[in-house]
Specification:
Layout lengths: L1 H5 L10 H21 L3 H4 L7 H12 L5 H26 L12 H8 L4 H23 L4 H6 L12 E3 L2 E6 L2 H11 L7 H5 L3 E8 L5 E8 L6 E7 L7 H15 L4 H15 L18 H10 L13 H7 L14 H9 L1
Helix pairs in contact: 2-4, 5-7, 5-13
Amino acid sequence: MLRQLDQLPAEYLPKSDDDHRVFQELWQPLVDLACVLQRDVLELAAPFAQGWGQGQRVLANKLGAALDFDAIYAFARATYRYSVYPALKAELAKRGQPADVAEDPPLAFFAAWFGQVGLRRLAQMALQWRDAYRQFSLERLGLRGAEAAASLDWLPVVGGAAGYSHGNYRVIELTSHQALELEGREQEHCVASYAVKCLTGDSALFSIRERATGKILSTFEVDLRRDRPLLVKHYAQGNQTPKPALQAVAERFVKRVMEPTPIQRIAAVRDARRRAGAPVVHRLDSPDSQESELTAQEQQRLAEMLAFTYPAEVQRRDVSRYLERKGLLNLFIRTSGIDAEQVKIAHTA
């Protein structure tokens, strides 16, 4: 941390205890995000040039919410999964160039799509996606109204400790039905149906993610009904057994973060969740139920909901040409399918 401070221009140096606190909270996430976006970290840190504490407060006031790096990563990944990936796949097929397009966003995607976007705008876009997807999710459940939306969000058990980093991994608590839906769809498991267990106060659900890119690696459940929190389930993609390193992260989190949480807080959170969820819990699937697949119309709607993210120089149905102009198209084609260089040659012919 001292080395990082030595390298900062004078205007970015923390000048008060409040500045130091915020700097310690935000600097590493800013560095990670800048690396992913291939940006100078000071460009992203521009909102804090006049003071870290003041910058955080001003940014929160303008956003109407706290700055959430996890939400930015989740939104960026959703942009690829629900809009860019299907558009790219359809374009190549339509041009007679069927290819095995990568389902997971290549690292180059983040810089290509969001590399010129400032921190405040990124946070605004993440909130716009969150609100739009919440409405989409409610409609799929046959629910409507602010009360139903509020009932499908629940209090975190561990509060500010929910964003827990260990090495290259980060653990976040999943505190809404929408978050469980998106987690389950990307991981190809049934965690979305565990909203019932969260709203009845029985369980807390957590996601282990790659710290630098936000990629979901595994999901685990902690039972809250016992004398102390207990890790009961932990799955990687497709209900596979997580790698030992991920299992170690989950166990460490439960021991170091969950177990020290006062039992009174856990009891209070469980009661609050039950009260909040009462209006909607009967409308949700039972645990271990498979989520219904998205229809073609729903997939199209999700793609259109994310059209606002497209860079100015790319039109909605010109993703492949945009990537080609940037020399990136081959990075989006998995080598297990048609040879990426063949696609590139055919595309430019």
